[in-house]
Amino acid sequence: MGMQTIGRPTAPFASDAIANDTISGSRGLLQHEGLIFEVGSPDKTGVDLPKPKGRTDRLGGVARKVDTGLPGLTEPEAVRHYMRLSQRNYAIDLGFFPLGSCTMKHNPRLNEKAARLPGFADIHPMQPQSTVQGALALIDELATWLKTLTGMPAVAMSPKAGAHGELCGMLAIRQALIARGEAGTRKRVLVPASAHGTNPATAIQCGFIVDEIKADARGRVDMDDFKRKLEHTDDVAGIMLTNPNTCGLFETDIKEIADLIHDAGGYFYCDGANFNAIVGRVRPGDLGIDAMHINLHKTFSTPHGGGGPGSGPTVLSDALAPFAPVPYVTYDNDGYHLIEQIEGEASDAFGRMVAFHGQMGMFVRALAYMLSHGADGLKQVAEDAVLNANYVQARLKNVMTPAFDGFCMHEALFSDAFTADGIETIDIAKALIDEGYHPMTMYFPLVVHGAMLIEPTETESKQELDRFCDALEGIAKRAAAGDEAMKGAPYLAPMKRLDETLAARKPVLKWTPPAPEAIAAE
Amino acid sequence: MRYLPLTPEDRAAMLNTIGAASVDDFYQDVPQSARLGGQIEGLPNHQGELAVERHMSRLAALNTTASDVPFFVGCGAYKHHVPASVDMVIQRSEFLTTYTPYQPEIAQGTLQTLFEFQTQVASMTAMDVANASMYDGSTSCAEAAVMACRVTKRKKVVLSGGIHPHYAAATRLLCEAQGIEVVQLPTAVDGELELANHVDETTACVIGQSPNVFGTVTDLSSVADAAHEKKALLVSVFTEAVSLGLVTPPGEMGADIAVGEGQSIGGALNFGGPYVGLFACTKKLVRQMPGRLCGETVDAEGKRGFVLTLSTREQHIRRDKATSNICTNSGLCALAFTAHMTLLGGKGLRDLAVLNHEAACDLADALEAIDGVEIVTPRFFNEFAFTTPLDAEAVIAMLEERGILGGVRASRLLPNGQMNNVIIAAATECTTEEDIEAYAAALKEIV
Fold it and tell me: Which residues in chain B are contacts of A323 at CB distance < 8 A?
């Protein structure tokens, strides 16, 4: 049956009226949704379980006294709850997400499918090793890829994320110093001012002290300052350097840095967060590094998931390889084996960082990504990522202020020098939200005033980049002209700017039932 | 290349706009000796989706899954049923493919679910506050130990003899790197209360586990009292989150910090990861916590919203003064946890816990009826240790030959623990009567 149009207006009616507050609290497709504590109830459940017999006789009386009182929702209610909340999130699948230093690239769905194969998802870490040969083979295959791509002889697979990989590398350095009998004296770790916050925090977690190196006018390590720090070498443990660095630049003096730190008796930790810029084109092992973590959730596209899980395998040089943590996988005529104890061939291992064997779910996704791209495709990944970043820099350099001269690597960095007084980096970021984009990384790295760090990645088309650059160009011009309206942005997001000061001053970290008088007053 | 949108024409046009001759210009800062001429050797070229999927399926098929066989393996990771809608939720692109919620105006979905997660974890552990997750239970335990040292300004932690050995190892590693003394009490199936005898004025915390690695459940209240008397803290650990529905939770025992593994709720086994670390504490310790915290606030129009808060504890603000170096945590696993908990509700959690306990009781009844088998765990939730007259490694292998994954031999976790004839077995709501019968029949044949 065709649509009955008689008597039904079929052309739109132009109106100036704007719908502000609605009765329901919803706004068109954006549905109102409360907290589960407001919409659920303690006697509801979305799971049908067999009725327990009520047997608790082997518990020895160690029983919970007060029930959790937590609400439940039936499945239709729960699905709507999360669906509605999901629509308040920006995501890479929705649009451009140029968050510098975070490598928000497309997450292939094949990888999700592979990770959910029961042969990977439904196996237990403590099953007999003979029943998980395929899993161990996968870990070994991924390790081979990582070692080959980095040109490094060993890799520790168990670190759970980037910062955990940093911890792995620095603990390996600490163990090497213990083996040399110098752990008590070599405590000083050199860290550039531009480093991720995790670098100094990691060094401290390992019992080192942090000595900050300045950046030079080119955004690289200030070699004069670095050499000054090495005038006394007997307390030097090593250096933690990100390369390409957080300014999106390759450290031109990296080999000299490696030589000098080695001559000083120290080790070279490289933060591999920005490996995407060079994967397939440069092997960090050729640069003289001793350890580097690889964020599988950046370069190798395992999804960020709103804050993890990540995975941070850490490649190690010959000097550090003997100290690699357990567990690790070996292979002989009988098949694959997990070395789980600090004994035998692993007797120099610095320890165990974590329960079980690492982020298997992420390993599957990362290997699927690597196999899909191959050695040829990964080189293209790096080149397109760098090309895209340079394109963004070129398109915007006349309306914004590039932090440094020359080409960049995989991210373009701007300072806020072009903005009028009163307009700040955060205003530009929030104005981008109204244009339908996730903002760039803001106020990082710390060495650039009002930093705006844009990392497009290789999975953006030229059309997408052009649309973004058009939008940011317009915003930059408004910022240069001192458009005060930007201070109120975003106007079109689900929420206006949130009061972070209030949140920190009076922390409310969980839901509590409203006081009875508040209920009465409603 | 199906994942790379740029065309050769795009690349040429972009190079032209940039004013570069080729992409090689962008790599001119790389030392000459480190520039690769062509592509990296020793790795295959790109493959289509079908080829990759075949390769992955072939590797996956070599493994025996927990659903394939009667399955009793636990010791820190547990086979539970996860409702189908949980996976639908975490596969929503808006949750799966977003970042840590640094821009709260366009991340309220993630932030509200974290706020709900924190509330659920606080209620389940009976603690005041919980953070937005850690990597896993073992790293949470390590972080709790060093947090206790920050809080008390002391440098000694004491581990019970029933702590999961991997948790103990992770804790020892982090503590020793920071010059913290670690006292490990001798391995004991039922020795958690012994912690009370090892607290002095230099002790930052004692760390006990319930259910412990042998499955023993213990009310640690007397340990808490002993610790508090010396102004030390009690860190209470669990590896089975479902136990919180039935067993005395950390907060009811006077714990100052509660840490544990959340994999059992919303999580697959995943061969050990990714999992989700749960971390909760008392209100007065919140500013010494590691990790992200989500808090309630209002927007410019006064509407309720959520933001990451108390960031001055964290590495991206405080750098070398941060409480931890953690950045990425287990966001998506925390989402799976909270979605599963929302489906269960408090009543569902309790029922699920009772079903787990009953399955373990049935298993214990069946096994201890076999001559030579002795259950050595005095009080348990869904997991217990038992001895046989034979070496446990041989027993596990013979069970495997009979198509049964019968648990974990204690010697795999404790090679020097004098426990060569001890097996730790777990049962959950997934364990059927037939599974238990098959296990008992096979074990009877073996011993």
Answer: none
